Structure formats: structure tokens, C-alpha cells
Amino acid sequence: MNKIVISTVLAALIIGLSGCSTPPEPPPDIPLSLLEEFQKTSANIVESGGLAAVGIARSKSLYIALNKAQADGRIQLADRLELQIEALQKDVPEETTQAIIANHIQDLIAKELKHEVIDGVISAYALMELDPQVLDKEGLQ
């Protein structure tokens, strides 16, 4: 009886330890959501020296959702511009920041717009990018 118990314990131990040496299964490729896709693209633009942001809006109207997403994207982009100026620790006149916002961000059209419908509500995403030449021209790179 003891031999059976010992054999069973040893077999379980060997099986358990052999499982430790096999590498774990790689996770399946899960497609990115639209938001994740836009955020990744925005991050790539920023890493390459540009300035980008993602605007998000939800509505039952596609027209309203897309327009609100662009408006939100402009706000996010202006906020990022202000953060970038602060990070540079330069004394940039407030007028310069406001001029960039007024002349280049206020009427900026989305680089990319996409939407999805979930439970009858439209989620819209707008990828906004400020031309890097604008930042270079103002010495903000």
C-alpha cells in the first residue's frame, strides 16, 4: 500500500516538475481596439518628435460623435503643447502658445477619424497631429 502511495506521489511530482520546464504558451494575437490603435499611432508620432493626441466622443449621432471627437482632440493637442513647453523649461511667451493654438490647432482637421457602434452608441476617435514644422519654426523641438 505504501509503495502505491509513494509511486503515485512520485509520479505526480515528476509530472508537475516536467510542466515547469516547458515554456508557457504565447498569448494569442488579439487585435487592438480602435482606441488602442489610435493611442499607439499617437505615441509613435510623439516618439519621433511630433505632437499628436487622440480625441474621443460618444453620441447616438455619427455627425455629432465625429465633430466632438475632433474638438476633444484639439483640446488634448493644446494641452500636450502646453506640457511640452513646460517640459522644455523655456520662457515662451503666453502669446506664442496662444498664437500656435489659434493658428494651427483651433481649425486643425483630424489626420484620421474612425468610429464603432456598441449597443447603439457611436464611439468616435480622432487622431490629431500638429505639423512638426510649426514646432521647429517656434523653437519648441
Structural class: alpha+beta
CATH superfamily: Acetamidase/Formamidase-like domains
Radius of gyration: 26 Å
Question: What is the CATH architecture term?
Answer: Roll
- Main sheet: which strands, in order across? 1-3-2
For the record, the count of structural domains works out to: 1
Name the CATH class.
Alpha Beta
What is the tally of beta strands? 3
The largest sheet, given as strand count, sense and whether it forms a barrel, is: 3 strands, antiparallel
List low-confidence stretches.
9-24
Strand content: 15-25%
**How many distinct helices?**
5
Q: What is the overall silhouette? A: elongated
- The ordered H/E elements are HHEHHEEH
Helical content stands at 55-70%
Through-space gap between termini: 78 Å
CATH topology: Endonuclease I-creI
Task: Let me know the average pLDDT.
Answer: 79
What labels would you give this structure?
alpha+beta; 3-stranded antiparallel beta sheet; 5 helices
Summarize, please.
The protein is of the alpha+beta class. Helix content is 55%, strand content 18%.
Could you characterize the architecture of this molecule?
- This protein is α+β, with helices and mostly antiparallel strands and 141 residues long.
- It has a single domain (33-137), classed as Roll (Endonuclease I-creI), CATH 3.10.28.20.
- It has 5 helices and 3 strands; from the N terminus they run H-H-E-H-H-E-E-H.
- The chain has helices spanning 2-20, 34-47, 62-88, 94-105, 132-137, and strands at 51-59, 112-118, 121-130.
- Strands 1-3-2 form a 3-stranded antiparallel sheet.
- Strand 2 and strand 3 form a beta hairpin.
